[in-house]
Specification:
The complex is a heterodimer. Chain A is mainly α. Chain A has helices at 2-53, 123-152, 161-206, and strands spanning 73-81, 84-94. In chain B, helix 2 runs parallel beside helix 17 (312-336) and helix 12 packs antiparallel against helix 13 (250-256). The chains are: A mainly alpha, B mainly alpha. Chain B: Belongs to the V-ATPase V0D/AC39 subunit family. Chain B: It is a peripheral membrane protein.
């Protein structure tokens, strides 16, 4: 009876791992499918911008070859042991890091003042916190807009709204790519766990080798 | 005196007017565009264009074709036609024809200066310049550090020299200064061209005034929309608008303070010719504004051919060809990106 219960628990655990793997595969395929239309829209918007501003104005000849720091970074976090990564690596995007302000200006950063605090608080304190939060968000928003405009300034400072739309499309595509990388990482991790589970089960059935 | 051009125009301008009307007849028709819009690949487009006057320019291009190649070769055809007209023109038609290219010259100057600022190779930049805007000392632009040097070293001997008086500073060239320089030069050029056409008088003055006024108004709208959300101040924006056109001066005052597309619409709808343009757009939308303006421009350019004995036909023909090249570029991009359903978003038919 105890063995049956233990076996059922082990099966349940293995089923859970398989389900996790299948869920992560589904998420990965869904994410990758969503990437193609975003990229298509980005290329189309770029073509619209070239049509609007002129092909001679929006071309690769305008790109800046001077040494300059990247405006967007990809950070990878994973436990490194000797030559290989142990554990599941994860990726995060640090968007619109300006040369003056080394930290990210990403819109995903939520300032602490926006977090809700339980307990009694006066209305004016709440309003002040909210307005501080709004000001912080506005500052981040302004910084992001400034960095976006700076990147597009290689084509001129008065660019068509279509070029800005193209920039947003490619920015979204980059976010989706990083999301896909993270999902893939968890998918591979789930797969390795399922594989390990299967090997353990097989060894358990065969028994120890004399 | 207006009305008596029929007596004397053909002495010097008759032959070239006949030539340009012949060129106008070879513009692509609606059935050409229908065939092109159904192409599956860029090689299909090349095959359809081989039956037109673009054929000789594209026939030697190897596959796979690129959209920029199609635009370059079609532009070469326009340049050849322009040069053949220019070399046979006498004054004042030759000066008029040269005026048509100054806009491209300004774009080339800005491209070279911007590219040099970005440490691009000068030869590479020269290859990307518009062929209609080339001049002898253009490569020397790369050595200038500020506008004063730009003027003193290179541009003083070019037709753009008179336009520099309004924007000469000793400030180093950067992206914002270059953009203001571009728009200030273009403003000065348009005003100069307008004054030149007024001096010519007659049908040329009447027809070109309308076309240039439309160009000035469209520029004002584009500057306004493109500068929304940028660091360009209202005063700086106002200074970039031309001092003529239907919107001058009251429309410009309203446009200078616009903060979004709906305010631009509200300012423009007070003018009946532009009310019809903005009525085609939904509120808050500016994507189709370019197409609406191009359609209106094409209508006015085609009307220029309804009258004889004036120079406006040359300007109209050049602009119609440029529109045709834009159409071909758009169709090629939609075919290359497999977005044929969107091809009619920006194609403007020319009849």
């Amino acid at each position: 009876m105890a063995e049956g219960a233990g076996g059922a628990a082990a099966n349940g655990g293995s089923d859970e791992k398989v389900l996790d793997f299948l869920d992560s595969v589904d998420s990965y395929l869904t994410t990758m499918e969503s990437l193609a239309p975003i990229l298509r829209q980005g290329w189309f918007d770029l073509a619209s911008a070239r049509h609007s501003m002129g092909v001679f104005r929006v071309s690769s000849a305008s790109l800046d070859l001077k040494d300059h720091s990247a405006s967007t970074y990809l950070q990878m976090v994973g436990h490194e042991s000797d030559d290989s990564f142990v554990g599941q690596p994860s990726f995060s995007l640090c968007k619109w890091a300006s040369a003056d302000n080394k930290s990210c200006c990403s819109e995903e950063e939520i300032p602490d003042s926006q977090l809700r605090h339980r307990g009694t608080s006066r209305l004016s304190e709440n309003q002040e916190q909210n307005s501080n939060g709004d000001d912080s968000l506005k500052t981040v928003d302004d910084l992001v807009k400034k960095e976006r405009a700076k990147t597009l300034s290689v084509f001129g400072t008065l660019v068509s709204p279509k070029l800005r739309t193209a920039q947003l499309s490619f920015e979204t595509a980059l976010e989706v790519l990083v999301e896909a990388a993270n999902i893939r990482s968890s998918m591979l991790s789930a797969y390795s766990q399922v594989q390990k589970q299967m090997e353990d089960t097989r060894e358990g059935e065969i028994g120890p080798i004399p | 005196m207006y009305g008596f051009e029929a007596l004397t125009f053909n002495i010097h301008g008759g032959y070239l007017e006949a030539i340009v009307r012949g060129h106008r007849a070879s513009l692509l028709t609606a059935s050409d565009y229908n065939n092109l819009c159904q192409c599956e690949t860029l090689d299909d487009i090349k095959m359809h264009l081989s039956a037109t006057e673009y054929g000789p320019y594209l026939q030697n291009e190897p596959s796979p074709l690129h959209t920029t190649t199609i635009v370059e070769k079609c532009t070469l055809k326009l340049v050849d036609e322009y040069k053949s007209m220019l070399c046979q023109a006498t004054e004042p038609l030759s000066t008029f024809l040269e005026y048509i290219t100054y806009g491209h010259m300004i774009d080339n100057v800005v491209l070279i200066v911007t590219g040099t600022l970005h440490e691009r190779d000068v030869q590479e930049l020269l290859e990307k310049c518009h062929p209609l805007g080339m001049f002898d000392s253009i490569a020397t632009l790369a050595v200038a550090q500020n506008m004063r040097e730009l003027y003193r070293l290179v541009l003083v001997d070019t037709p753009l020299a008179p336009y520099f008086s309004e924007c000469i500073t000793s400030e180093d060239l950067d992206d914002m200064n270059i953009e203001i320089m571009r728009n200030t030069l273009y403003k000065a050029y348009l005003e100069d061209f307008y004054r030149f056409c007024q001096k010519l008088g007659g049908a040329t003055a009447e027809i070109m005034s309308d076309l240039l006024a439309f160009e000035a108004d469209r520029r004002a709208v584009n500057i306004t929309i493109n500068s929304i959300g940028t660091e360009l101040t209202r005063d700086d924006r106002r200074k970039l608008y031309s001092n003529f056109g239907l919107l001058y001066p009251y429309g410009h005052e309203e446009l200078a303070i616009c903060e979004d597309v709906d305010q631009v619409r509200a300012a423009m709808e007070k003018y009946p010719p532009y009310q019809s343009i903005f009525s085609k757009l939904s509120y808050g939308e500016s994507q189709m504004l370019d197409k609406a303006f191009y359609e209106e421009e094409v209508k006015r350019l085609c009307l220029a051919f309804e009258q004889q004995f004036h120079y406006g036909v040359f300007f109209a023909y050049m602009r119609l060809r440029e529109q045709e090249i834009r159409n071909l570029m758009w169709i090629s991009e939609c075919v290359a990106q497999n977005q044929k359903s969107r091809v009619h978003d920006s194609v403007v038919f020319i009849f």
